[in-house]
Amino acid sequence: MKKIFFFAALVITVFSSCQSGPERNILGLPTVTNPDEIRRPYTIIDHKNRAVGGSIPAWVDLWLDSGLQDIEELPPFNNRYVFIGRNEGVHLNPLNLWMEGFSPELDFPRLAAARIERRFSSEAGHPDHEYGSFYEALIKAASDAPWIGATKADDFWIRRRYIPDEDNNEELETWEFIILLTIDRDLFASQFQDILDDIIPFPTPTIAQIEAANSIIENFFTGF
Question: 9 pLDDT exceeds 60?
Answer without folding.
Answer: no
